[in-house]
Each structure stands twice: as C-alpha cells, then as structure tokens.
Predict the 3D structure of the following.
Amino acid sequence: MPNKCLLFVSAVPNKLLDIHAALKIDNICVPLSLERFSQGSVIAIDGIIINIDFKNVTAVETVKESLQNVDRNKTFLVFVVDSDKAGDLTEAFALGADEIIYRNSPKLALKQDWVKNTALRIRNLISSYDARQKQPKVLKQAIKSGDAALSYIFNSAQSGKLIKIQDLKKDIVSIIGALDEYGLDAWLELVRSHHSATYQHCLIVTGVATAFGRSIGCNDKDLERLSIGAMLHDVGKSKIPVEILEKPGPLDEFEWVIMKQHPNLGREIITQAHDFDPEVLDIVTHHHEYLDGSGYPDNLKGSEISDIVRIMTISDIFGAMIERRSYKREASPQQAYDVLSSMTTKLEMPLVRAFSEILKTFQKAA
Ligand SMILES: [Fe+2]
Ligand SMILES: [Fe+2]
C-alpha cells in the first residue's frame, strides 16, 4: 500500500491515536483538532477520518463548511458513529461519508480488537479508493447512478413516498451499460468497500443478477426488469432498524426475527407503488423462498417459485457471501459457488450450473 496522508479530525484528537499507531507504519497520520481543520491548514490529504458528536450542531456545521474546501474526487471520507444512534448514520452519509466506523461496536468490546479492526477497514478503504481512481469514468458514473437509485428507493420508502419506475430507469440503463462494457469483476471491485452494508449488498446483487441474466440470454426488456428487481429486492429493509442493518457483527436470534420481516415489508411498499411489473413484486416478496419449502415468508415450494425469483435467489446468496463486512472475511467466488452447488434441495441445479459462467469472469480477471 503506498504512503497516504490521512487526517484524524476530532474534538479530542488523542482519542484516535491508537488507530493512528496501528496505521502509521506505511501512512502519514495527522491528528487534528476540529478548530485546526476548520482553518484549512492542511493540504494534499488522501483521506479524512472524522470523529465528532453529531448532537453538537456547531461541530456538524464546522465539518460541513470545512469539507467544502476539500477535493472530494481525491479525498475519501470516513466518519466514526455510534452504532446505536440511527441519526448519526444518516448525518454521516448526508455529509458525504464513503465509509463508517462504529465507535461502540458491541461484538468488538476489546479495545485492541476494535483498533485492529478499524485499521483494517481503513486499509481496505485505501486500496479500494486507489482502485476506484484507476477505473473508467463510465463505470464510476454507473456506481453513482446505483447510489442515487438506492438512496431514492430507501429514502422514498422510509418517508412513505411512492417509488416510481420512471425515476429509476435512467440509472438502471447506465448500470446495465457499464456492466456490459466493463464486466462484473470491475463493478464489484468498486462497490465492495465504500458503501453502507445495505447499499453494498444491493449494488453487488444488482451486478451479479444483471451479469447472470445477460449470460443466460435474457432479452433487454427482461434484463431491465431483473436489474430493477435486484435494486429493489431488499427495499423492505428500509423499515428495519439501522442498528440491525448495519450491525458490525453477526445478528442474534431476536435480530434475525426482525430482519426476516423484510420481504413482507417490501411486498407492502411495492404493492402500494402500483408502478411495477408483477415480476418485480414477486422478486421483492419471494427472494428468500427455497424449492423444498424451507424458505420465507410464504413457504413456497417447487413450481410455485417463478424463474425470475430463482435467478434472484441464486444472485442474492452469492452476493451476500462475496460482500465485504468488517467482521467477516468475504468468501472467494469459488467458495461462494461451492455453497450454491451444495444447496441441492433448495436451488434449481441447472441454473446453478449455468451460473458457473459468472465464475469464469473472475478466473479471467485473477
Ligand atoms: Fe433479502
Ligand atoms: Fe438481499
């Protein structure tokens, strides 16, 4: 990893010194008070890690104003937030966060684990940021379109506004175009590190489902439907508490019960929207159903599960396994494929075999 200049901006800069120590072997780290940051005294920075109290309106305003002097095309932005305050997360993304670090990660109670984990996240972010800089403009634009589409979907659903297909079409066309031109591997390289866990997951699944649809010969109209379905498939998660969605550790039994409500919540949202093909509603509601009837929420079986849902379920499982979360190592594409192949009673095996074409794109890139 090349040397980077990172700023640690905090009301109490010393609080971040442990992370500073963990990173400084190959990076220049400058702890900085909020006041010094607002004076714009440091130039040529690669990344800024900001630790503020989001309840402090003056601090939030100071950060907002100071960031106007930062070239966001060259500098990535990380915010430290409390995992039990949903408002912190929203504020951080509104201020332009590329990445989030949780201050009070319940699963990483030991301070040294937290420091190690955080340093690792920052390292991943730096590598993905470097990779991003080298990627073609069209691809970066498509990722922005994906981001825009997802914030439109999730914000509309959260605030009770109807989602309109027309507002999504342009972004979907841009994503399909970029995937056709640059391939799934380049897409994943870009989306795997710098988004919230939920956005990352939806962008990965959209890429995987679209590439899969293309490889099995879907026509343009079907492919568009599949991509829209993938973008929306977890829309019900907009109603799940953010501390469960973004929890930096595996969910416990109680949290799973809540999480498993998302297909039904999604069904309500898409039914109210009136705007989508029945296939999209089917994807949103049934992407966790299995052929042997062991899935949810409707315990569908065999032929009750449509072809487009079967494609989405495979893409969703594969996507979830290869995504990068702070508390687990991602599976390699081959490991994820092996898991799909072992789900013989749950997934359609001829489709899983067809999915091996997707695997070849990674082998080519390796
Ligand atoms: Fe889901
Ligand atoms: Fe999903």
